[in-house]
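If you are new to this repository, start here. Below is one unmodified record pulled from the training split, so you can see the exact layout before writing a loader.
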Amino acid sequence: MQAVKDFFIGEWYFALPLVVMSLVGASLVIWRILLNISANTSMDEFLPIFQEVLRKHGIRGAVELCKRETGLIPNRVFVAGLEAADQGAAAMRRSMANEVELEVLPRLHFLLPTILAIAKIATMVGLFFTVISMINTFDAIGRESAAGKVKEIGGHSSKIGLALFATAIGLFTAIPLVFSHVLFKAWITKFEVKIKVATQKLITLVTNYKKDPKLLDKPIPGVTDRMHVPTVAAPALVKPVAAAPATGSVPVAAAAIPIRPAPQDRRG
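And here is the target side for that same chain:
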């Protein structure tokens, strides 16, 4: 422990960058864990609720339910599929596939390249500091040997041990980060399988919903349906004309027209 203390105090300019990288890497791992927790959704608990809302309130109600969820599968994948439900199952698959490729997977891989980069850089930085410290130590041994100070050469053996602490701290930083990166990649692979299963179930539920004529597309209570426009009967602009009598007589409207008397012949 005394050697470690001497390294952090006497060789602080080597220890400080490695300690900073260790703290940053640990913070990124914790951040990624919290993001994974928020992105996950228990589909065994969500699907029965989703099916009930779809049956009672239709596709618009199901969209509103999915938007209130924080998980990536309901909030992103299901919403993309439901918005294309009117165009058929093929359109739903394309919409959900595009959403997974362009939105979901980039969010799942967020911070992973940075974590892996810190792990690799920490190892190389530790080795680099060790090499520099070893060069300085052997250079001091060489100068003292040339000066004939043989007894003082043995004191530099402890500095060689301190130089190796840089490599040790680099490995201490890199090993947990690489391990965390592998676990995150495995979690993403499992999550992709979960997405595929959920999309197939969504298409099945929507298809069954469309085949049942008893299910009406009702909005959730309290949500304004701006797409619904009530149908109002247009007022009659032209009044029907009464049919003329079958006897060939003059219509009543024609009898009301005044007729001028013929001019009298005043000649002779």
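Two things worth knowing about this chain: The helical segments are 2-10, 12-39, 43-67, 72-83, 89-108, 112-146, 157-211, 252-255. Residues 215-259 have pLDDT under 50 and may be disordered.
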